[in-house]
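Morning F.,

Quick status update on the modeling queue. The single chain you submitted on Monday has been processed. Sequence for confirmation:
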Amino acid sequence: MRKRLALLVAAAMSLVLIAFLVPMAILLRSVTADRAVTTATAKAQSLTSLIATADAQTVQAAVDQLNAMAGYPVTVFLPDSTVVGASSARTPGVQLAELQGSIIVAEAGGREILVAVEGLAQGTAVVRVFVSQAELTRGLGSAWLVLAVLGLVLLALGVVVADRLARSVVRPVHELAAVSHGLASGNLDARARPSGPAEVRAVAAALNHLAARIRELIRQEREAVADISHRLRTPLTVLRLDAESLDDPGAAERITGHAEALEREISAIIQQARDRDSGPGACDAAEVVAERARFWSVLAQDQDRHSTMDIVPGPVPVAVGRTELAACLDALLGNIFAHTPESTSYAIRLSVPAGGGALLVVEDTGPGFTVDAPVSRGTSGAGSTGLGLDIARRTARASGGTFTVAQAHPHGARIVLKLGPPGS
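Structure tokens below.
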């Protein structure tokens, strides 16, 4: 936009300068020629009174002196065919001046200034002054050069002023774009500084209002999530009290432990909802994956599921918080336990790819996916909420990694998460 405004002003000023300077240049050429002709005419007329009263020798001396001083060749054609002064033929212009009076005749090399001296006893004398083309344009080149330099200076000045004006318009627009990108990247404190034209200031004010509204809506959403999670504590407390009243101490202890684990997860969800502005976290993927794998292995034994765990020794730092990574792995393993028959085996593999981060693979030997887009949020081919795979996808993307769903061989589902390293 800045370059376009500068080009537009340069084009407009060029047209204006051409419309102004071309006529000025033509006028200067005309004025220069007229000045030379006027000077030559005055020199010629200065001899008329002398020719009318003096003898030929006096006229000869005056013409010679004038030729030495004037810079123009002066010739006097007397009525008796005598030629005084600079050598010149009796041109048709001279003959015409003898008959019709003083005239100016344009020739290829300049102009003839012919002044007729009438009333002589023997006839009419003619004073001829020849002004060459060089004399007609003397000083014209320097004048045209001054005009050209003046035009270039004005053009450059106009472009500089246009560039400053365009910068005052474009700079606030760039600031608005930077604020917009900041909001898109999660910086909800980014605000635009109202500056520039009134229209740009109005857009900045609207963008600031939108940012404040987005921040308020997100705050309300997080508080709503925290409130919903907190409301789960009451039925959870009732569940724990019922578990403690069971006659079987082993079953009571087991159910109470599960209830306490669920309560810890609810507390983590509340904390996560309120601390989401703190930015992406980091954790040791090997430690978290091993911990959740051990937790689910107990349930796998109850359902006669064979589990394979191939976890690289830690630490394996990734750009995912501990709670988020645990929730991601729980969602993937929970899908296996919920949507595959008992005794279906599964495998968990964690490795470190080139470039850092972690490569997490979860696969099973179940029926696999039955829909074409299993990661569409809210879509499930097994009658569930359809959020499990989307949780895993968003976790991978938030770390700067990738999420891939494929069919395992010979059958089953294969989930591959590439988690980015901290600072990616």
